[in-house]
């Protein structure tokens, strides 16, 4: 059973549930105060505006008691995926490195973007080929990935950068970077390869007639 953690202000929990259902993966939306159910085999931290994004996006949700259980589950190798606000929660809680800050445009951006698969040897990217270009939607105002240069170099060396923003031909350029993320990074994994966060929304790209199916490869890690 995949537990989708709902906080006050979450608004992509139902999207995640329906996307997983469309892929034949059983899931359950869990209120954060109720903790993780027994038999949890995977965890989604969904998008939205948890706690109204007060202080910083994801900062208050990252201090919810359920995050201790999420970290324990991650330590046991249970897959954990943070998407958009869930990515912000993941970085704020220390599940993954770096931080997500205000877009370089200082505007909320909602559009489809291209991503290049940087490392296909992880549960989250195994359905793709290294260098493959996929298309997913974004919808965020604080999606700029920030990290110091030395730490980014370490992530590169360890193969922990999963996706980069790119153009349709796979070129990583400033013009193709929608939010000014360092190195064009759109998704990274934690110390364990079973933990990952990304700003684009794979759960909104699982059906041919609604957003395409490029997001299925990410969610397939839960299958």
From TrEMBL:
Functional pathway: Purine metabolism; IMP biosynthesis via de novo pathway; 5-amino-1-(5-phospho-D-ribosyl)imidazole from N(2)-formyl-N(1)-(5-phospho-D-ribosyl)glycinamide: step 1/2
Cited InterPro entries: Class_I_gatase-like, PRibForGlyAmidine_synth_PurQ
GO terms under biological process: 'de novo' IMP biosynthetic process
Localization: Cytoplasm
Keywords: ATP-binding, Cytoplasm, Glutamine amidotransferase, Hydrolase, Ligase, Nucleotide-binding, Purine biosynthesis
SMART domains: GATase_5 (SM01211)
Pfam families per UniProt: GATase_5
GO molecular function terms attached to this record: ATP binding; glutaminase activity; phosphoribosylformylglycinamidine synthase activity
Keyword Chloroplast included in the entry's annotation: no
Name of the protein in question: Phosphoribosylformylglycinamidine synthase subunit PurQ
Active site: 84 (nucleophile), 201, 203
EC number: 6.3.5.3, 3.5.1.2
Chief place where the protein resides: cytoplasm
Species this chain originates from: Halalkalicoccus paucihalophilus
């Amino acid at each position: 059973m995949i537990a989708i953690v709902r906080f006050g202000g979450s608004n992509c929990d139902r999207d995640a549930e329906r996307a997983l259902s469309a892929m034949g993966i059983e899931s359950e939306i869990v209120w954060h105060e109720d903790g993780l159910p027994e038999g949890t085999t995977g965890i989604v931290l969904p998008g939205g505006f948890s706690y109204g994004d007060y202080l910083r996006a994801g900062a208050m949700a990252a201090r919810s008691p359920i995050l201790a259980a999420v970290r324990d589950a991650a330590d046991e190798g249970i897959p954990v995926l943070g998407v958009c606000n869930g990515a912000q929660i993941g970085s704020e809680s220390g599940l993954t490195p770096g931080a997500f800050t205000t877009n370089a445009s200082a505007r909320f951006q909602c559009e489809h973007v291209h991503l290049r698969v940087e490392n296909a040897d992880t549960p989250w990217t195994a359905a793709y080929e290294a260098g493959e270009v996929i298309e997913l939607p974004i919808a965020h105002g604080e999606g700029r990935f920030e990290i110091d240069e030395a730490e980014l170099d370490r992530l590169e060396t360890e193969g922990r950068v999963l996706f980069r923003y790119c153009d349709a031909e796979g070129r990583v350029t400033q013009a193709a970077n929608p939010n000014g993320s360092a190195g064009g990074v759109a998704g990274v994994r934690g110390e364990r390869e079973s933990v990952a966060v990304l700003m684009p929304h794979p759960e909104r790209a699982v059906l041919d007639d609604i957003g395409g199916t490029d997001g299925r490869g990410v969610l397939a890690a839960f299958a």
